[in-house]
């Protein structure tokens, strides 16, 4: 499993939109990379459809989306038709085929002794291939989550985290529990009070000396 701060590996793979050279495809954008244990699984069908309906939200944040399942691209193409029929949204982002499990292993989602083919493997065999990575323009992993197969992923939360990451990448603040876009934020502890007075001339509310709360910077 890649951890926060790890450099996301580059790769070349076939997808529903042709060959993907990951770094070239990503460019200078943010990226949400999310994986699926097998095609034609019910929970993942709902997830792929929900993400399809959120593409404008991701685009507004300069964030590209790419999915992967350890089945061939030919299978993905058939699955896309199912997703559109069930969820009412066409999948307009690429789905990578990984039938030799290379990328799943590259990202630490399967052990290296998992074999070299997706054929004959069940979704349960691939249960750990159910991750979400947010990758920054610097190619580093900013978030890594792995979900159980019975729990659908909350993509409103993924967008919330993306908003927080983009805000805190450029400002010396952190976002508190349950933070939503536009709400108060916290000055990071590494900023001294004297530096904070320059950065936040209107001052801050300090319920504790180590907790300095300010309005979200614009």
Question: How would you explain this protein's 3D organization?
Answer:
This protein is α+β, with helices and mostly antiparallel strands and 218 residues long. The chain has two domains: 12-152, Glutaredoxin (3-Layer(aba) Sandwich), CATH 3.40.30; 171-214, Antioxidant, Horf6, Chain A, domain2 (Antioxidant, Horf6, Chain A, domain 2), CATH 3.30.1020.10. The protein is 30% helix and 22% strand. The protein has seven helices and eleven strands. It has helices at 22-26, 42-52, 55-60, 73-87, 102-106, 155-170, 193-199; strands at residues 12-15, 18-21, 30-36, 63-69, 95-97, 131-135, 141-146, 173-174, 185-187, 205-208, 211-214. A five-stranded mixed β-sheet has the order 5-4-3-6-7. The protein has a four-stranded antiparallel β-sheet with strand order 8-9-11-10, covered by helices on one side. Strands 1-2 form a two-stranded antiparallel ribbon. Helix 4 (73-87) links the parallel strand 4 (63-69) and strand 5 (95-97). Helix 2 crosses helix 4 (73-87). The longest helix has 16 residues, at 155-170. It is elongated, with a radius of gyration of 20 Å. The relative contact order is 0.16.
């Amino acid at each position: 499993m890649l951890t926060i701060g790890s450099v996301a590996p580059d790769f070349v793979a076939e997808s529903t939109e042709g060959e993907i050279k990951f770094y070239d495809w990503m460019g200078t954008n943010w990226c949400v990379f999310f994986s699926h244990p097998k095609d034609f699984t019910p929970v993942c069908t709902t997830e792929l459809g929900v993400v399809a309906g959120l593409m404008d939200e991701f685009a507004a944040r300069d964030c590209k989306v790419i999915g992967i399942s350890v089945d061939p691209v030919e299978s993905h193409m058939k699955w896309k038709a199912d997703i559109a029929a069930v969820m009412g949204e066409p999948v307009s982002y690429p789905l990578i085929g990984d039938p030799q499990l290379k990328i799943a292993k590259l990202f630490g989602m399967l052990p290296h002794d998992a074999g070299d083919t997706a054929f004959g493997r069940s979704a349960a065999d691939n249960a750990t291939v159910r991750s979400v990575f947010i990758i920054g323009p610097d190619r580093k992993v900013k978030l890594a989550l792995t979900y159980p197969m019975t729990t659908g992923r909350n993509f409103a939360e993924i967008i919330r985290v993306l908003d927080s990451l983009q805000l805190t990448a450029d400002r010396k603040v952190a976002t508190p529990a349950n933070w939503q876009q536009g709400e108060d934020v916290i000055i990071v502890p590494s900023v001294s009070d004297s530096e904070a007075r320059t950065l936040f001339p209107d001052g801050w509310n300090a319920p504790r000396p180590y907790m300095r709360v300010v309005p979200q910077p614009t």
